[in-house]
């Protein structure tokens, strides 16, 4: 299976820029997607196909990358962005998710 | 609008089975795959499998092939996930989900919490 590696946690202050990385154990083309999940809620799709914002997602969120290295960037960060962010690939079967990066806003 | 409404939490004994539902609305049920995802503290998010309502053969993550059964009822636009021979490792939240017009799971149910305990 394709393993997606994310750093476990990040802490930033409001107004700063933060980059959340996701590295795939094998190439996934541009079929990487990002989700935001807040406690007690289901995940919400934020970025699809590496760089496309889902409907309703603020322009502060952007995605980049292809192949094996991907990044979700939030600029500027706001207090409401406190959540866990998961990457997910749909190029190789079975589709897999990263373990999530917990973002804390100081 | 698209909605996926899942059945309520379940407390089940080890060795038993549990069947949960995902009632969909707001779209043509037979046009999209329904996927099931497990979320546990140990393994984060894992795809269990996917079922196309007009097909008799679901796709499974091999890890779950002997654990899960996926079915649908087209008359009620409902998908089902049944888990068998439950152990503590099956305690988790289970989500049904569906992609949008583009790749990525754009629609999620609210999740069903399954607790396996004697």
Sum up the structure in keywords:
heterodimer, A: 106 residues, mainly beta, B: 118 residues, 7-stranded mixed β-sheet, globular
How would you describe the overall organization of this protein?
The complex is a heterodimer of chains A (106) and B (118). Chain A is 0% helix and 49% strand. By secondary structure, chain A is mainly β. In chain A, 36% of the residues are buried. The mean pLDDT of chain B is 95. Chain B has strands spanning 3-6, 10-12, 18-25, 34-40, 44-51, 59-60, 68-73, 78-83, 92-99, 105-108, 112-116. In chain B, a hairpin with a 5-residue loop joins strand 9 (92-99) and strand 10. Chain B is globular and about 40 Å long. The chains are: A mainly beta (106), B mainly beta (118). The interface between A and B is medium-sized, with 24 and 20 residues.
Short description:
The complex is a heterodimer of chains A (106) and B (118). With 106 residues, chain A is mainly β. Helix content of chain A is 0%, strand content 49%.
Helices and strands in order:
The complex is a heterodimer of chains A (106) and B (118).
Chain A: E1 4-5, E2 9-12, E3 18-24, E4 32-37, E5 44-48, E6 52-53, E7 61-66, E8 69-74, E9 83-89, E10 96-97, E11 101-105
Parallel strand pairs in A: 2-11
Antiparallel strand pairs in A: 1-3, 3-8, 4-5, 4-9, 5-6, 7-8, 9-10, 9-11
Chain B: E1 3-6, E2 10-12, E3 18-25, E4 34-40, E5 44-51, E6 59-60, E7 68-73, E8 78-83, E9 92-99, E10 105-108, E11 112-116
Parallel strand pairs in B: 2-11
Antiparallel strand pairs in B: 1-3, 3-8, 4-5, 4-9, 5-6, 7-8, 9-10, 9-11
